[in-house]
Inverse folding.
């Protein structure tokens, strides 16, 4: 087991050696993920086991932690829990990816060495919501400027706690 997360790894060699990678990784090491974050400070906890299943090098484990996304409604901070299980089968071609067993996510390994952070941030980014936003209606509407196109039935149900859900549902496809 490695105490400190390595920066650059050869994932195939790691799989052959049955390496176990455990520890925190700073969000600053993940530039692409940072683009989605309101607060780029902090870290994620990584626990990844590398092994081979038949001939396929595999990465399996979990990435956990807290990040702060940007709410796409109000552009304010949106706390988000990362809890991503990882089960990657490494392949060299798309054809090999098609033959992977069910439950494996294919990762095309074109170069031998790659930053460990790149694997981790890819996993986290695919687990992020497409359109992150607060569950409550966080936009402050001006009282002199009523919402246009708001359906009559939702207005009438404004005391109903489910109206927020209804509204989210209504606007969700835009
Ligand atoms: Zn918001």
């Amino acid at each position: 087991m490695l105490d400190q997360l390595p920066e650059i790894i050869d994932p195939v060699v790691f799989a052959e050696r049955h390496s176990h990678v455990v520890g925190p990784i700073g969000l600053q090491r993940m530039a692409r993920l940072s683009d989605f974050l309101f607060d780029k400070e902090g870290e994620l906890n990584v626990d990844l086991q590398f092994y081979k299943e038949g001939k396929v090098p595999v990465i399996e484990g979990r990435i956990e932690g807290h990040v702060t996304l940007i709410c796409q409604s109000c552009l304010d901070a949106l706390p988000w829990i990362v809890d991503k299980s990882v089960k990657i089968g490494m392949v060299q071609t798309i054809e090999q990816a098609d033959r992977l067993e069910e439950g494996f996510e294919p990762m095309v390994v074109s170069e031998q060495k790659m930053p460990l952070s790149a694997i981790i941030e890819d996993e986290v980014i695919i687990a992020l919501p497409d359109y992150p936003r607060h569950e409550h209606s966080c936009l402050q509407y001006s009282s002199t400027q009523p919402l246009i196109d708001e359906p009559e039935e939702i207005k009438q149900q404004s005391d109903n706690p489910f109206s927020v859900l209804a509204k989210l549902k209504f606007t969700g496809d835009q």
Summary: The chain has a mean pLDDT of 84.
